[in-house]
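Narrative summary of target 7.
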Amino acid sequence: MSKLDNLQQINTNAPRETLVYLADGLVIKRPVDTSNSKILNTWLGKQIQAKDTSDKVLAANNKNYFVPRTLEISSKEYFVVEERATGKPLSSSFFETLTKKEVDIIYKGIAHFINDINQSKQVLTQKETFDSFTSVEYLGEVSIPVLIDKLSKYISKEDMQIVQDAKDWFDVASDNDASIVFAHGDMNEHNIFFNRETKTLSIIDFADSKYQNADYMFNVDFARLGWLDIDRLIKEYDALPKKQHVNVKNKPEIKNMRNALYNFKNSASEFLHNPKLATKIRIEIIKQEIEKIKNLYTKVKDNKDFQKGISILKKQKEMSIINNFALTEEKNR
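Modeled conformation, tokenized:
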């Protein structure tokens, strides 16, 4: 399998990670860089992930689109064998030549595909995913309450309370905001094919599949396809039956607060991982992040629906404390 000199390479658009060849009607994938074992293993891991994702999508058995089946993955020779997606990449120039009926097939197929891949894993709320997210390799708990507790020796109680209040607001406000869904992650014209003869839409390359904010998925990931009418796609998608509900739209004030809290969380996590390194400078950066949170919170804190939600949240926290205390007492008897 390592001798590919006589095979036709079919991805000639300066591939970054993967070389793709055509052999006997099948697709063979190899890594671009074969000299670095770390890069090779990362590439292999992404191919295994891609197979897992495509298998889950294929389980939906949806005839409105085609997804190539992964037939073999070699962890010794670093190659993947897949079925081939036929047709042409769906570039803007190609799309402009299609008939209305063909365009309808494409929108319907993409909407069904998005629905199936979103439903292939649990749909989450932003509240459920926030505390598990950090872009910093910090070995330890990174929830906001823990960060506040550990930062209390460096930053005032008043500033820490602002962060907690803002997080409470976010938890309540984001409960009915854009969902976190499992998505393709790399939608571009080279990963979507349309065969005019068979009227078949094909979607390939699931190596970057991941959880995304649903609003981001539509308005950033799919927006790379310049020919795509996002509003029409969302309408087609919303009309499809769903086992798990998905909210698509993200309110700007919630998005801004989420980003501000993420920035605080990452700065605080990174600092606490090594607090002796440039302590004053990094504390000042964290305070600047808190000031941004404060400014955003000031604009939204008096909303009546939010205040009602906060009351419910506080009661839930109180009940949780009471229940945990009761369980502890029961164990100590």
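Residues 125 and 179 are 5 Å apart (CA to CA).
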